[in-house]
Amino acid sequence: xxxxxxxxxxxSEDLVFNLSNQHISYIFRVSPEGILEHLHFGGAIxxxxxxxxxxxxxxxxxxxxxxxxxxxQLDDTPQEYxxxxxxxxxxxxxxxxxxxxxxxxxxxxxxxxxxxxxADLPNLPSARGGASSTLAVTLEDAVSQLEVTLSYTxxxxxxxxxxxxxxxxxxxxxxxxxxxxxxxxDLPQGDYELLHLxxxxxxxxxxxxxxxxxxxxxxxxxxxxxxxxxxxFMALMSKGAGEQHGAVIGTALMYSGNFAITxxxxxxxxxxxxxxINPFNxxxxxxxxxxxxxxEAVHVFSHQGLDAMSQTWHRFVNDKISPPQFVDxxxxxxxxxxxxxxxxxxxxxxxGLADKAKxxxxxxxxxxxxxxxxxxxxxxxxxxxxTDETKFPQGIxxxxxxxxxxxxxxxxxxxxxxxxxxxxxxxxxxxxxxxxPDRVLSTGRNxxxxxxxxxxxxxxxxxRIDSFLSTGLIDYVKWDxxxxxxxxxxxxLSADRQLEVPHRYMLGLYSLVERITSKYPNVLFENCxxxxxxxxxxxxxxxxxxxxxxMCDPIGRLSIIGGASHLFPLSTLASYIGPVPNHQNxxxxxxxxxxxxxxxxxxxGLSLNxxxxxxxxxxxxxxxxxxxxxxxxxxxxxxxxxKNTGNEVCWQLNSRCGQRVxxxxxHVLSAPNQPFRRTKxxxxxxxxxxxxxxxxxxxxxxxxxxxxxxxxxxxAMRIQADTDYSxxxxxxxxxxxxxxxEKN
Length: 744
Ligand code: GLA
Fold this sequence. Notes:
alpha+beta, ten-stranded antiparallel β-sheet, eight-stranded parallel barrel, 19% helix, globular, binds alpha-D-galactopyranose
């Protein structure tokens, strides 16, 4: 045992571990029996002054006593990494079929070590270190011959604790992991609410809030992607917490595959939160001396509500997760070929779009799907990453060169993880699909998933993508992925390892994106999976931005951006002005509304056909001008959710310097004779005044924050000629105002 202190981690003689920065503490201890007991995650508590509350031992009829120790039962003992079967009957953090063929294991404290900063997780994305300290606590089970090392990192300048676990087989026979969570936090008894982000294709990130029920509530994915159904994120909060008040613990998993976040409230009302790889349909054979590493779980604490939680996430994502080379970079405005030409892209079409882009002031042309050999519709060719020479006779390189000669950047679409059976790749390598024998495989958009658990597949994809990026002509890659997994298995693995495929796939995917993105650090990567089907902190470690949803109707997008903003900063979000009637929901909205909702993202662009571009040319030129002028503020600014009544949404973005404040106010459906609305802005300088640009009026920062300001009024009739309509919304449904305040 080593007992040492540093600025952020204190360990007492009796093994109380106190991880604290100025604002938060994470505290646990070793019980006399050797169990790691959780004591606190929340506001800062200095070490060594005595904790005023902690785990208690009482006699309860009908419950068990751990190892026969009087009144010590693990079912109501808060723990750090609990197991099932020795008086704890709740969801365990670890469940292992040991070499004796049972799942009864007990982990007791063995040693600990403190290091400055934080090491990267092997083969998995993890938050960067820096001003931080890491505590590694090793637990052992001498009977099952298992060792588990729990890693905790606390940051000096972020109210964040990260956790992960390594499970090592120190025996002589193989064991089987059935569940290995990244993290478990047992919260004190209390009334909590939870918020999570649910959805589906084109309606991702809908925030749902509910009381934590007695029983077990799970958000999870078993689809092979983190999924658009549940994002791997959950906030647990004191009952009644709001945007600006209340205690909130946010948990997110840095993982892009099958995950589960579980909240369990048991008969004694203690609340357990576990986060990790989904134990459903998961097994991992661990041979002697092998180590299994879990993904990283990230926990944040806010005592000032959901807004402060989001600010913590946003700063942490920007500082420690997103690729550092782009995080502060204004992103180029772009024109994407998809809605303009779909699969009918050719050299001439692309050059024509490039001319249009240039005339509109756009900075980048993105060539989407349809450019590779034989790809004329979505039934064929995925996997054959070779230029279609009937469409691009001189190769993509020459098209890229000519686009760039016009002063534009050039972007290219790939969907590397997929294959159509109608492709040269499938004919050559039918065993490269994710598959099980003797079954007809389900298709999704006519395609199949390549088996990235295989090194030969990863090598092939690296070579193909590299052959395009090595030309130095590609500034941006849209990395798409358009189906989830089914009939999951690998032709390259033995029968007893088939349930390892989803996680092995993730390890293969991460190794591929790590290799490519580190070889081309100046290429901007955008993560897309039919929109937000894999929009998570795992891929964000490699790809600076994500296509949050295929939904580009502005009304449809309001709840998506509002929901995603709980975790993701605007620096990670991409948007575009798409066509009307909208291709996802058929709604018709003005260019103004599309522009003003799409405003709140860092990567902003257009996906319109030439007729739409021509018909709306002036408004689009204005939009692109606005986007370029505000691009730096989007990556650097702080975003706040100000109001959301369902029919009305208001967002605020403060530039990093505090000089500019952007307020977007959106109204869904019109109605007559509305009440007046007022809203309070946040995080302004109370002692300064701010000028509302469109009306030339000055307001005090204190007044804007405490009194609020009068939101534009929705007057459906507007029949009095002598009324001042400068603070009104447009008439009708689906209207918006974008207000800009400048600090005087
Ligand atoms: C997905 C994406 C679209 C487009 C198409 C191309 O649907 O979400 O933006 O790239 O694939 O096939």
